[in-house]
Amino acid sequence: MGVVILVRHGQASFGADDYDVLSETGWEQGRLLGRWLGERAVAPTAVLRGGMRRHRETAEAAGWAPEEDLGWDEFDHLSVVAADPDHPTGELDRRGFQRAFEQATARWTGGGFDDEYAESWPGFVDRVRSALDRAVARAGAGETVVVVTSGGPIAVACAALADPDADAASYARPWHRFNTTIVNASFTRVVVGSTGARLLTFNEHPHLEGDALTYR
Fold first, then answer.
1. 76: exposed, middle or buried (C-beta count within 10 Å: 0-12, 13-18, 19+)?
2. Running DSSP on this structure, what letter comes out for residue 89?
3. Which of 10-19, 40-49, 76-85, 117-126 is predicted least confidently?
4. 48, 81, 129, 181: which is deepest, by most CB within 10 A?
5. Domains in the chain and their CATH numbers?
6. What is the DSSP letter of 125?
7. Which residues, at least 6 apart from 90, have a Cβ–Cβ distance to it below 8 Å?
8. pLDDT 10s digits, 193-205
9. Cβ(148)–Cβ(187) under 8 Å?
């Protein structure tokens, strides 16, 4: 069997001029992840990452040299929030932004407004599912493919693996559940065997504790 390990990036820089940069905590989370997996002889045969800076920096912190696959990019959460006609204006703290984010993504995934978004929810699901298929295809017997990405794509992958025959609309509910609980620099394991890919574990983070354990 092969394994695909889906890694969420380390903590980004909320409130900074450029969110797409790891915080100091994010860099430490990446180092802890790489060290923990290395100590357990988890040696990737391939490492993939999305095209965002936080993906690249997390891979660097873990000690990996990844290939880029833009299919693993996060959706543009800022444009999704801005497209919500009821989104609050002004500067928001973490709690306020989380409320706005959940409200806006519920609208985005709910259908009926696809033409108002640069990337629709069905388009995002299809993009991530295609990226997952590419990663799975590289996870042959005894091989380990690591993917460094974001919470949104990991949640789509988990929803797709939990119910492979469902359509994009059916993924919305489990996606919200998965997406709101994924820890920074956590990892999710997918086992690849003769019957295809199956979700083995979700959101593992034994390498993180204390201040190193963050969700946003």
1. middle
2. P
3. 10-19
4. 48
5. 2-75+119-212 (3.40.50.1240), 76-118 (no CATH)
6. H
7. none
8. 999 999 999 999 9
9. no
Contact criterion met (CB below 8 Å) for 104 and 81: yes
Residue corresponding to tokens 């609309």? 169
Length in residues, the chain: 216
From the list 1, 2, 5, the residue with the least C-alpha distance to 157 is: 5
**pLDDT at residue 168 greater than cutoff 90:** no
In the chain, DSSP assigns E strands to 2-8, 46-49, 67-68, 144-149, 187-193, 196-199
- Provide the token pair at 25: 């905590």
- Cα–Cα dist 187/47, whole Å: 13
Distance CA 159, CA 46 (A): 24
Going from the C-alpha of 168 to that of each of 130, 150, 152, the distances in angstroms are 13, 19, 14
Nearest residue to 8 via CA among 198, 201, 182:
182
Q: Is 45 exposed, middle or buried (0-12, 13-18, 19+ CB in 10 A)?
A: middle
What's the one-letter identity of residue 126? D
155/199 Cα distance (integer angstroms): 11
Identity of residue 15: G
List, for residues 177-194, the tens digit of each pLDDT value.
Answer: 999 999 999 999 999 999
